[in-house]
Amino acid sequence: MAPRTMTDAQKVAKFFPEFEQHSAQLADAQVVQTVLLGLEEVKRSAAERQVTFDPQVEALKEVTRKCEAARDAAVAAEATAAADLELKAGLRKAAQDEADSATMEQSNVNVDGQVAAEICEELRAEQAAGWAVAEMLGKDAAAQEAEADVEAVTTYLTGIRAEATLVAAVAGVLALKAAERGPFDLVTLESLSEVLAAKALQVEEQLALSTPAEREAKSEMLGLWALTEVLNEKLQAHGEASTQAQAAVVAAKAAVKAAKKELQLQNRAEGNLLAEQYLEGEKVEEVAVAILALQRLAVVAEAEAAVVAEAEAVALAEAEAAAASLQAAAEAQAEAAVAASIQAAAEAEAEAAAAASLQAAAEGEAEAVAAPAPEAAVEAEAAPAAPAAPAPEAEAAAPAPEAHAEDVESLTSPQKRRKVEEEVSDAVNFPVSLMGGC
To answer: Low complexity compositional bias: what residue ranges (predicted)?
Structure first.
């Protein structure tokens, strides 16, 4: 959606809210100056605020640079911690492999040593048993002991797989006391001694062969045990180091996260401050545009005022012309009325003169009738028809001389003349009053 275009009046009112009160008076230079001063004050204030932002912006940029350096250091520390963790994890794995290998070897050696020990133990037990049987043969035991010895000897002989006849004969020989034994018994005892001696020699030879293996197995077991202990301690140390490295990585990640968040907040603060500074600069530009708009509105208002003044002048001129025309017509009418009055007065005077002449003639005739002269009688007799014709007119006009005389007297009187002149003056001044009303 395209931005709505503002009118010049809206541009001015945006920064001078009282403009609506003065918008109808822009033809007045003082009003325009008042609005202009208000806009200039807004512009000056915005420009001052815009300048005050510079040190704040520079300070925030310095803090931002420090935050970026802290972020970079935290990232580098995280990378170092990760590399250290990888190294120590590798060492721990190697130690674990060595410990596992040693443990497995120890287990195998233990099995072999156990087998060698068991073999030697069995041989020693067998040797001890042979020694015990040989001792029993030379002992003159009581009856109860003899029974026990017989059982032990027969068990031993059976275990070494001696001849059955010898085993059976031994039981009878051992049951007798030494004094009761005969030659056969002595031969049996001698054969038994030979068997025991042969078995003892065999066991001794086997022990001679098995004992070094047992000692070697024990020595190897002891060495592997010591190695396993060392490797386990090494594994534990590498494990602790790996755990510490893991904790260092976690701490480094947290530090990176915190540094990034701090940098983000700082960037946001710097952006907000820059936006405010930009808005103040934009406000300065908008106020400058509003000043131009005010100037345009003032020019338009002056032009409209000039048009209105011109129209009023034209209307006034037309009214004055119309009034002058009416006055001229009234003056002409008054002059015509005066001329008519004068003419009427002249006619009245003429009529009055005629009436006076008629009256004089009538009076002369009356006198003539009262005392006719001889010449008049002769003339009357000579022309009887001439004076007879106007007789009716004289009779009809007889009262007229008096009326005409009154009219002439009224017209020629000073009072009547003043009245006529006042009427004429009123008639002349009437259009002027109308013009003044226009």
So the answer is: 370-402
Of the listed ranges 9-18, 177-186, 208-217, the least confidently predicted one is 177-186
Predicted confidence at residue 377, as pLDDT, reads: 44
Is 109 inside a domain boundary?
no
Comparing 139 with 365, the larger pLDDT belongs to 365
- Where does 260-375 show beta strands of DSSP type E? none
In a domain, 356, yes or no: yes
For 65-93, b/e burial (b = at least 16 CB within 10 A) is eebeebbeebbebbeebbebbeebbebbe
User: Cα–chain-centroid distance for residue 241?
Assistant: 48
As a dihedral over the C-alpha atoms of residue 352, residue 356, residue 361, residue 366, rounded to 10 degrees, the angle is 120
Please count the CA atoms within 13 angstroms of the CA of 4 that sit on its side-chain side.
5
Domains identified in the chain, total number: 1
Examine residue 419 and state whether it is found in any structural domain, yes or no.
yes
Compute the chain's Rg from CA coordinates: 82
Query: Domain for residue 407, yes or no?
Result: yes
Q: Please give the C-alpha separations between residue 232 and each of 89, 92, 101, in angstroms, as whole numbers.
A: 15, 11, 11
Q: When comparing pLDDT for 417 and 436, which is higher? A: 417
* pTM beyond 0.70: no
- Distance of alpha carbon 173 from alpha carbon 186, whole angstroms: 8
What pLDDT does 401 receive? Answer: 46
Domain housing 424: 319-367+394-437
Q: Which of 361, 363, 348, 340 is nearest to 405 (CA)?
A: 348
What is the per-residue pLDDT for 123? 75
pLDDT tens per residue across span 236-251: 998 999 999 999 999 9
- Give me 95's structure tokens: 């130690």
